Amino acid sequence: xxxxxxxxxxxxxxxxxxxxxxxxxxxxxxxxxxxxxxxxxxxxxxxxxxxxxxxxxxxxxxxxxxxxxxxxxxxxxxxxxxxxxxxxxxxxxxxxxxxxxxxxxxxxxxxxxxxxxxxxxxxxxxxxxxxxxxxxxxxxxxxxxxxxxxxxxxxxxxxxxxxxxxxxxxxxxxxxxxxxxxxxxxxxxxxxxxxxxxxxxxxxxxxxxxxxxxxxxxxxxxxxxxxxxxxxxxxxxxxxxxxxxxxxxxxxxxxxxxxxxxxxxxxxxxxxxxxxxxxxxxxxxxxxxxxxxxxxxxxxxxxxxxxxxxxxxxxxxxxxxxxxxxxxxxxxxxxxxxxxxxxxxxxxxxxxxxxxxxxxxxxxxxxxxxxxxxxxxxxxxxxxxxxxxxxxxxxxxxxxxxxxxxxxxxxxxx
Length: 414
Known about the structure:
This protein is an all-beta fold and about 425 residues long.
């Protein structure tokens, strides 16, 4: 679901418009589709919180803030809606009882999330101050200041070892990981000088990924705070969204393009350094040095890049464009220029069947898997299914993309 250029709520299914609301009088500022896809909850610039029923086509106003709505959240059963706004309040709307106004923030509320199996609400202010509310009574349960920052830009929550953790970051850089039960800051990761636009935990809570305004992506150990990768500079503008597969093996980053990466293990042990003794020997005759014998050829360092020759890109096309055909050819190129089929090739479960190049990073980690260029200049959000095999997004030009994982069968590999 997304608003169109006429400020109507549009619901798509398989790339086709299946539901379309009436024109809304105020710009839509936040949105969430319910889990059963029967309704869309959205907030507007004039402070209204509304619900669009996709079955009846009706739009109902649940309540309003005195300023712009910055965030909305819907419970899994669709019976509770939570919103936050620039009026420094959090509002909780129940289907069968009056709404509640929760006051306790001194700055604008930037994010709201339903946590603890739907029993509590977490709100984050513009300076990273966290409040936890009882979702049924609206009572303020806990205020956390250990995650404060100069200007908060992102928030993420994860359940790890029976603990609920939150990651807060902002324009001054650095990510503070906070325990929402004790209110203590467990660890701070990342450089304190690089603005963070988006932060995301891995599903198991052991990794944390940061996307920066510089276009770089970095991966960190969420337990120790150690860096697990060098900066991955492939985006040329803000990194606006990241997603991590359920098995924590693949990362998707979004901004001016979509990029898939392989994730390292949370525990990285550098390979032991091998002390080599220099062997003294007689000079090698010139004829042997330039003979190109097998021993000399085999002793040369080989580049292990995996290349893909792509004829009419196999990535899914924008809606309305004709389908393309793809012929994959994967091979190994050595520095001598010879091509050879890789021994022991295995097809991973991530969308590497359509990758153009795989680079080898630190400790032989293959980081870059695949890139996909969009027609517009950027995307703001990517929706991913649980299997991490389908990806849906809309760019700023209004083009919707539905990308499916494609792993070629052995008959395509030569």
